[in-house]
Design a protein that fits this description.
241 residues; alpha/beta; TIM Barrel; 9-stranded mixed beta sheet; 17% strand; phosphoric diester hydrolase activity
Length: 241
C-alpha cells in the first residue's frame, strides 16, 4: 500500500503521489490522511501544522480552503513539483474513482474536527465508493461514529504499541482490519489477529529486512510503504535466487 500516495518519489498526500501509485500495478492500495479546513472541507494532509510540507505556517484547522489552495505543497520535496496544491478529499476520490482501494485516515482527536466523519462519508457515498474505501483512525470514538453512520464502509483501527485485548478492541468497533506499527509486531500478535479473522496492515515498512522479518510469521499482511519499489525489488531478487 502506498503511504500518503507514493511518497518516496513525490510529495506526500498530493495528486502527483497518488497518480504515481495508481499507475503502478504492483501497488495494491493507497493510504491518505484527511482533516477539515476552517470552512469545513475535508482536505488531504497529514500534519496538524503546515510548516513541514508547504510554504505556509500555523495550524491547518485555522485556514480556509482558499487559503490552503494558495500554498505550495510540492517545492519542499523537489522543485519539479513546485506549485503542487493540497488536494481536497473530493479531488482524490474523483482521481482514484475505484481503481484501487483507498484507506482514508481520519486525523481526528476527540472533537478537534466536528463533522469530519459525516462529511467524509457523504463524499464516499456521493461517488459510490463505499466498497472501495476503508476509514482509518487511532481514535476509537471516531470509528464508532463511522460505524453508526455508515456500517457498510469498512473500518481500520490503528494501534501503537502492544495493546492488551487487541481482538476485543477490534471487535468493539467491528473493524475489518487493524493497522500496526512494524516495530511492535511479533508472532503472538500476528497469531491473535489471524485467529480473529482480521486483515493485518503494517506501517510503515521501507526496509526489505523488516518486511522479511514480518513475513516470517507466516501470515498474509499488507505493508504500508513510502518506497514500495524497494520491497518488490528485494522480492524479485529472492525469486531469482
Amino acid at each position: 500500500m502506498a503511504h500518503r500516495g507514493w511518497s518516496g518519489i513525490a510529495p506526500e498526500n498530493t495528486l502527483s503521489s497518488i497518480k504515481l501509485a495508481l499507475e503502478e500495478p504492483k501497488i495494491h492500495a493507497i493510504e491518505i490522511d484527511i482533516q477539515l479546513t476552517k470552512d469545513g472541507v475535508p482536505i488531504v494532509f497529514h500534519d496538524k501544522i503546515l510548516d513541514r510540507t508547504t510554504n505556509g505556517t500555523g495550524a491547518l484547522k485555522n485556514k480556509t480552503l482558499a487559503e490552503l489552495k494558495a500554498l505550495d505543497a510540492g517545492s519542499w520535496f523537489d522543485e519539479q513539483f513546485a506549485g503542487e496544491e493540497i488536494p481536497t478529499l473530493e479531488e482524490v476520490l474523483q482521481l482514484v474513482n475505484g481503481q484501487k482501494p483507498l484507506y482514508i485516515e481520519l486525523k481526528q482527536v476527540g472533537d478537534l474536527y466536528l463533522g469530519l466523519e459525516l462529511k467524509t462519508i457523504e463524499l464516499i457515498r456521493r461517488y459510490g465508493l463505499e466498497d472501495q474505501c476503508s476509514l482509518i483512525s487511532f481514535d476509537h470514538k471516531s470509528l464508532q461514529t463511522c460505524m453508526k453512520i455508515a456500517p457498510e464502509i469498512s473500518r481500520t483501527l490503528v494501534m501503537m504499541g502492544s495493546p492488551l485485548l487487541l481482538a476485543e478492541q477490534v471487535n468493539e468497533i467491528q473493524a475489518t482490519s487493524v493497522s500496526m506499527y512494524a516495530e511492535y509486531i511479533d508472532q503472538l500478535m500476528i497469531d491473535s489477529l489471524v485467529r480473529n479473522g482480521t486483515e493485518i496492515v503494517i506501517w510503515t515498512v521501507d526496509d526489505p529486512a523488516e518486511a522479511d522479518r514480518i513475513a516470517s510469521y507466516g501470515a498474509d499482511v499488507l505493508f504500508t510503504s513510502n518506497r514500495p519499489d524497494q520491497l518488490w525489488t528485494r522480492e524479485a531478487a529472492m525469486v531469482q535466487v
